Amino acid sequence: MDQYRINSWEDIGKINFSGLSMENICQLHFADLGLAFEFYNSYAKTRGFSVRKSGSRIVDGKVREKAYVCSCEGYRLEKWNHLKNRVREPKPETRCGCMSKLDVFFDAVTESWVVRDFCDEHNHEFVVLKLARMLRSHKKMTEPDISQMNHMKEVEIIIPNIFGSLASQCGGYENVNFSIKDMHNQVAKKRRQLPDDLTSAMAYLETLAARDQNLFYSDYEVGVFEQKWEEMVGCFGVEDREWIVDMCGKRNMWATAHI
Known about the structure:
Order of helices and strands: EHHEHEEEEHHHHHH
Radius of gyration: 29 Å
Mean pLDDT: 86
InterPro entries: FAR1_DNA_bnd_dom
Organism: Arachis hypogaea
Number of helices: 9
Oligomer: single chain
Domain FAR1: 38-127
Pfam family, one: FAR1
Distance between the termini: 68 Å
Protein name: FAR1 domain-containing protein
Largest sheet: 6 strands, mixed
């Protein structure tokens, strides 16, 4: 197998980044774009910087070239420093015009992404390696971490204790690639994805209606609802019952009604 071809994440895990030369990196080619980014991100972590995705060249609706750059590349746009409706002070400037980058392009012959240009010149200091895990491109929860956290929350274990448990499994807090805040953010994200009370109620009624043909529900305008109400109470002969009259009198206090 071509020693310079990266076909999977396992191949990236086998790379000795400390022994890579510029020449080695320029000969690499990747099975897909995702692997190109993961390689550069993994390389950056061993050096003490983070990366981000940059420009693309699109041909016939398909990406044919892609650039990945150091997170300190470029400069903040001046307009962000002079917003009239700003509430908080602007965040500290983190971009300083760093030129480090990895450019790849799609080679139709080999059907792989080949390194076109690689620059490893930085104009800023690197973070201490043991803290590189907390830089933006390295700081993330994996799917197994999220799954384990959710299972532990189901048995009412609090987030700090879950964090401690995950840290123990990793061999210490210094090996965890996320913070307690990231865990709370993930919980909030999951909560936002859950259906709200109205959606849950409608889904429940829909299930009941599928089981019982005598049950029906819908959303009606006021006039249509009143007509349906009269037809329903007349059908069952309860239009003169005190509790029906009282319920109908309080209908303006109802939320959206389902009958």
